[in-house]
Amino acid sequence: MKTIFSVFIILLACSYHCSAQFLPTPKFKKGKWGLVVGVQKVTDYKYDKIKLNTSTYDQFFVKLEDRWGLLDIRGNELIPPLYESIEYHFNDFFIVGNNNKVGLVDVQNNLLIPIQYDEIDPYVFEDGAALVKLNEEWFYVNDKGEKVERKEEELSLPNNGILPLFDPSCRELGDKELIVRCSEKKMFNFMADHIRYPRKAKRRGIQGLVVISFIISPEGEMLEPTISRDIGGGCGEEGLRVVKMMGDWYPAEVDGEKVASPYYLPIRFTLEK
Question: What's the whole-model pTM score?
Answer without folding.
Answer: 0.52
